[in-house]
Specification:
The chain has helices at 2-48, 125-131, 153-174, 228-245, 257-271, and strands at 54-60, 63-69, 75-84, 92-99, 104-111, 192-199, 204-212, 215-223. The protein is α+β, with helices and mostly antiparallel strands. The chain folds into two domains: 48-174, no CATH class; 186-271, Sufe protein. Chain: A (Alpha-Beta Complex), CATH 3.90.1010.
C-alpha cells in the first residue's frame, strides 16, 4: 500500500512538472508563432497589392478584412483573412484578395486539415489560378465557372461557397457593390407549386415550395446529398424558420450554415 501511494505521488509530481513545462514552452513559443504568422500574412498582402502603403482593418462576423490604399490614399482592394468549412475537422483558413473592381486577384491557403492527396489540391497554384480573375458579378459556383473535382466534393463546395460569400462581403461593405436581395413578396406569388435549386454544403439542394392564399404552406426537399451530420441540423429548423417568417430573409442555422443557406437559396430560387 505504501509503495502504491509513493508511486502515485511520484506520478502526480511528474505530471505537474510536465504540465508546467508545456505551459512554459507554449508561453514562450506562442508569441513567436503569432509574429511569424502575421509576417507571412503581410507578405501575402504585399504580393496581392504591391502598391499598398496604408492598411485599415475591420472585423465582420468574426473575420478580419484589411482595406488597402496606395500612397495617394486611393482604395486599391481588400484582403479577407477568412475561413471555410471543408471535409476536415478544422476549418480551411485562407486569404482572399479582391481589387477595387471586384476582381479576385489572389488566394492563399494558410492552414487546413483536408484529406492528404484528395483535399490538398486547394494548396496548388494551378487550382488557385482558376479562382484568380473571377469577378464579383460572376457566379463563383461549382459546375459553372469552377470545375467539379471527383472525390473532393465537400472540400471544393465548402471553399467555393466561402469564396462567394467573402467576395459578397467585400463588394457590399467596401466596394459599393449591391448584393442581390433575397426579398420575395409572397403575397404577389400566385397559388401553385414551385421548384428551385441551389448549392448546399456538399451537393445541390432541390426543393418544392407550395404557395396558397399568399402564404408559403409547405416546403419539401426533393433532392440533396449533403453531409448527414450537417443536414440533420439544418433541414427541419431552416424550413420552420422560413414558414414562421413567411420570408427567406432569415438567419442560417448555426453549426450547419452551408446546408441551411442552400435550403434558403433553393426556396428563393423557386419563388423569385
Amino acid at each position: 500500500m505504501r509503495d502504491s501511494v509513493k508511486m502515485a505521488v511520484v506520478l502526480l509530481v511528474i505530471g505537474a512538472l510536465c504540465g508546467g513545462l508545456l505551459a512554459g514552452i507554449n508561453a514562450w513559443t506562442g508569441p513567436i508563432i503569432e509574429t511569424r504568422a502575421q509576417a507571412e500574412f503581410m507578405e501575402t498582402v504585399g504580393r496581392f497589392f504591391p502598391d499598398v502603403e496604408k492598411i485599415d482593418e475591420e472585423v465582420i462576423d468574426g473575420e478580419d478584412y484589411f482595406i488597402c490604399y496606395d500612397s495617394a490614399g486611393n482604395l486599391i482592394g481588400v484582403v479577407g483573412q477568412v475561413k471555410a468549412s471543408g471535409y476536415g475537422d478544422d476549418p480551411i483558413r485562407y486569404n482572399l484578395g479582391v481589387d477595387k473592381d471586384g476582381d479576385i486577384i489572389g488566394i492563399s491557403v494558410s492552414s487546413h486539415t483536408e484529406t492528404p492527396g484528395i483535399g490538398t489540391f486547394i494548396e496548388s497554384e494551378e487550382w488557385q489560378q482558376n479562382i484568380v480573375g473571377l469577378n464579383f458579378n460572376d457566379p463563383i459556383a461549382v459546375g459553372q465557372d469552377i470545375d467539379t473535382r471527383s472525390g473532393a466534393t465537400v472540400t471544393l463546395r465548402g471553399l467555393t461557397n466561402s469564396i462567394r460569400r467573402v467576395t459578397d462581403v467585400i463588394g457590399e461593405n467596401f466596394l459599393g457593390f449591391e448584393v442581390e436581395s433575397m426579398e420575395v413578396d409572397i403575397a404577389a406569388v400566385g397559388d401553385g407549386t414551385y421548384t428551385g435549386t441551389a448549392a448546399g454544403f456538399a451537393s445541390d439542394i432541390t426543393v418544392e415550395v407550395t404557395v396558397s392564399g399568399g402564404a408559403i404552406t409547405e416546403i419539401v426537399v426533393l433532392e440533396q446529398n449533403d453531409t448527414a451530420s450537417f443536414w440533420d441540423i439544418a433541414e427541419e429548423d431552416t424550413i420552420n424558420r422560413i414558414l414562421d417568417a413567411q420570408s427567406v430573409e432569415i438567419d442560417a442555422v448555426s453549426g450547419a450554415t452551408a446546408s441551411s443557406d442552400g435550403i434558403i437559396a433553393a426556396v428563393f430560387d423557386a419563388l423569385k
